[in-house]
Amino acid sequence: MGKQTKVLVTGAGGFIGSHLVKRLKKEGCWVRGVDLKYPEFAETEADDFIIGDLRDPEICRYITDIRFDEVYQLAADMGGAGFVFTGENDADIMHNSAMINLNMLEACYKRNIKRIFYSSSACMYPEYNQMDPENPKCSEDSAYPAAPDSEYGWEKLFSERLYLAYNRNYGMEVRIARYHNIFGPEGTWQGGREKAPAALCRKVAEAEDGGFIEVWGDGKQTRSFLYIDECLEGTIRLMRSDFTGPVNIGSEEMVTINQLAKMIIEISGKNLSVKNVPGPLGVRGRNSDNRLIEEKLGWKPSMPLKKGLEITYAWVKEQVEKSKKA
Ligand code: NAD
Q: Which terminus has fewer CB within 10 Å in the chain: N or C?
């Protein structure tokens, strides 16, 4: 029997981290999770779970007491447009996430842990390439001259460069993905940090038949959304490849936000209209460009958006019904 792969997942109490732990456990890895909190919607499947604040370098040293084969660094202070684009959380977003990345990289380097994955975001792409909702440009090489539209994006760009510097100077085998709007069950669906797919699923689930739901902006802004299982597939494939990145992990099925809302309404079977109202927005258009991932990994996401939305809507609807009863 081969040696069991030992994996550390930081941010394991969050949406992507908790799903990643499940996936790695299915593969037979030994997994330690670390987060400020346990996963909200299901018991963690990690072999070991440590509650700890990764802004503290002592904690980062403490959790790297084993020479892990793989570290997935997913912890960040983050949320959807209502959290990232209002400006009110900018100092926390930049400070907290940068501290986590500085500490985790240094702790891994000192412990001679070589392979570390970093989840960057499509929010680091320059705003000037995303003004036309029909034709956003998000090829990996279009990142510079840098001009992200949020401090969240600037922190991601800084941290990408930090990981790349540890790769160059210290031989760390870093792997960097730029995620594009990941969604699925067991993600935040209320409270202010939820993102568009979960927020719209909630609004549709809560709406009375014959009524309407509110959608932020004119609804003509475009995005693509990637289902969680495909995000994990891409993440693990990248981690175990020879390619450092950064590389997009996202869907190329671009829709307007109004189209997204209408797809969810159709799934619900309700008769609802869409009312566009002012709200925090982000760039006009964004879509993944999957040429590089296909070239480097021989793989790219392929699941239709509708299929992922069906699963997610069913889950959010269940949460809405549970919270009504409570
Ligand atoms: P999430 O907010 O659900 O998970 C992040 C986790 O990090 C949370 O559980 C949080 O408690 C934890 N955390 C924050 N500060 C911490 C600290 N000081 N110490 C320990 N843990 C801390 O977010 P997610 O959607 O699972 O995203 C995971 C990663 O992927 C993040 O780095 C995020 O920026 C990146 N990303 C996500 C998306 C997306 O659409 N979900 C898109 C682009 C990039």
A: N
Where in the sequence is the domain holding 160, given as residue range(s)? Answer: 6-183+228-249
Helix (H/G/I), strand (E/B), else coil: 293 = helix
pTM given for the model: 0.96
| Segment 258-284, tens digit of pLDDT | 999 999 999 999 999 999 999 888 889
Is residue 206 one of the residues assigned to a domain?
no
Q: Which residues are catalytic?
A: 152
Report which ligand 1 atom has the smallest distance to the Cα of 79: 2
- With residue 162 as reference, give the H or E element that holds it: helix 151-170
Q: Which residues line ligand 1 (CB under 6 A)?
A: 11, 13-17, 35-37, 53-55, 74-78, 96, 100, 119, 121, 179, 181-182, 195
